[in-house]
Design brief:
By secondary structure, this protein is mainly alpha-helical. It contains three helices and no strands. The longest helix is centred in the last third of the chain and has 29 residues, at 74-102.
Length: 108
Amino acid sequence: MNAATPAKRRRRDDGRNDQSTSFLPRNNRPARLAFIGVIVGLVPMIGLIAGWWAIAFGIQGWRLYKRNPDAKGGGHALSGIVLGSIEIVCNALALIFFGIALGWFERS
């Protein structure tokens, strides 16, 4: 081989394909919806609704994962349950503090 011509690069065959893979589980739709609910719940005050949504779908996803471990998504389901609960508490406290600051709870 001449020094002026670059060497051809070989593609390493490591069993992976070029398709992009998703972070969310494909076979466990409730777990996926729970995780999406957690992400949506990061928006202030929407977390009061999305937190319940994340908990409900997280429980369904966790049950599906326990029945069929091939479904994957157990971590997403568990994060939906735990973080959904935290979102509800934090948003409820924020609403209470907001109400105190605006004088909603003062008696006339």
